[in-house]
Amino acid sequence: MTATAIPDLSRATDLLRDLLGERLLVPADADFATATRLWNAAVRREPVLVARCADAAEVADVVRIAHRCRLPLSVRAGGHDWAGRALRDGGVVVDLTGMRRVEVDPDAGTVTVAGGATAGDAVAAGRPHGLVVATGTVRTVGLAGLTLAGGYGPLCGRFGLALDNLLRADVVLADGREVTADPAHDAELYWALRGGGGNFGVVTRLTLRAHRVPAALAGMVMFGLDEAVDVLRGYRDLIAEAPDELTVMAGFLPGPQGEPLVFVCPVHAGADPGEGERYVDRIRAFGRPLVDQVASLPYEDVLRMFDGGMVDGNHYLLRTRWLPGLPDGAVEALVAAARQVSSPYSAIALHHFHGAATRVGAADTAFGLRTAHSLVEVIAAWAPADPAGPHREWADATSVALAPYALPGGYPNLLAPEETDRVLLAYGANVDRLRRAKRRYDPEGVFSAVPTLPEVRGAG
């Protein structure tokens, strides 16, 4: 390493202390451990500074100071990335968790959120107006990170991915410049942000299209593992003909007796509740329900269904596949994985991509897959005292078993940092344009975000 590349931590600390005062945290501070702790306790990263920012101007100054002092940078918004890319060893954390302001414009039909807002923040603010934004399935996930790389969720069929509803983003670039990206301003950055993740800058504010959905028919129907093959076959037939208004998850969740249960989670967000009820009755007929909890719910309560799915302090590892269909071989592989699960905390989820999300042009955003499919999320979870090996082996074996039925690539928000080959495959024909955008907006690779893009210098 040359002398000019040596990080100047002392200088960075002085400059950031002048800027932020007590909102700069160093390892000796009482709050530092909490500020660098993630929900996935398997992540072991040791940043050296946490910069708790209050607005975009402070974010810009922190980015410039980190660059000037040659310190690596990471961005913590929701901090929900399972691989922990919100933290970097020896780095400065641009902490947006205090920036959670939400503004609702009912007349314009928009919701504008600061960079640290969660999906729950946005949905709660829209609820008095009967407005929702497209989100993922969990309230605590940061809305920026979810939106930038995709955003599968309960409204996917009716309104598309979260990124399909992004109207504008305010961004701090790697050199500290503050820019706006929308169709009329920096349109190439706007294109890249919708699917390319946090690789181009720090998104300090997003404006999202809002939708009037006062309530949805939603809930959970669960069956015993002995009925899993029939349930998944029924699910396959159902999603093949589901209308836009109906988006359905399925998979396996831990059961009270230690054996997984197969679940089907419908969300019908249409105007005709009778249509929704007919589909729910069809789901009930897949087998003999052990749990049958479906009701008309405010969208905020729809997202509460998975609140207990991730236990802070446990260890997690995720694997993912895109399935263009659900042939019997894939069904059997999923059921076998459930029977062989290595931990009572682990789960498998199938996310339903259809409807409005498939009618966006493949080149209109950076997101690379616009044909109907199921996103498989393999979630290995275990207690901190357990050895990681058996759980990693279970997740990897499940991924391998599904590979013959899968499309290339996978959902960039879930791919592991080392899976850069699959990241490139995920973007398909968009990959070269995306890499050019990375080189244009972040030529020095300041942002190592989700997804982890390979080295871009010299890329075509």
Q: Classify the beta-strand content into a percent band.
A: 15-25%
Number of strand elements: 18
Low-pLDDT ranges: none
Give the oligomeric state: single chain
Radius of gyration: 22 Å
**Fraction of residues in helices?**
25-40%
- Named CATH topology of the largest domain: Vanillyl-alcohol Oxidase, Chain A, domain 3
Number of helices: 14
Pfam families: BBE (PF08031), FAD_binding_4 (PF01565)
GO molecular function: FAD binding; oxidoreductase activity
Organism: Micromonospora mirobrigensis
Protein name: FAD/FMN-containing dehydrogenase
Describe what this molecule looks like in 3D.
Residues 43-213 form the FAD-binding PCMH-type domain. Belongs to the oxygen-dependent FAD-linked oxidoreductase family. GO terms for molecular function: FAD binding; oxidoreductase activity. Its cofactor is FAD. The chain has 460 residues and is of the alpha+beta class. It has three domains: 3-95, 2-Layer Sandwich (Uridine Diphospho-n-acetylenolpyruvylglucosamine Reductase, domain 2), CATH 3.30.43.10; 102-212 and 434-441, Uridine Diphospho-n-acetylenolpyruvylglucosamine Reductase, domain 3, CATH 3.30.465; 216-405, 3-Layer(aba) Sandwich (Vanillyl-alcohol Oxidase, Chain A, domain 3). The protein has 14 helices and 18 strands. The chain has a seven-stranded antiparallel β-sheet. The protein has a five-stranded antiparallel β-sheet with strand order 5-6-10-8-9. The chain has a four-stranded mixed β-sheet with strand order 1-2-4-3. Strand 5 (102-105) and strand 6 (110-114) form a beta hairpin.
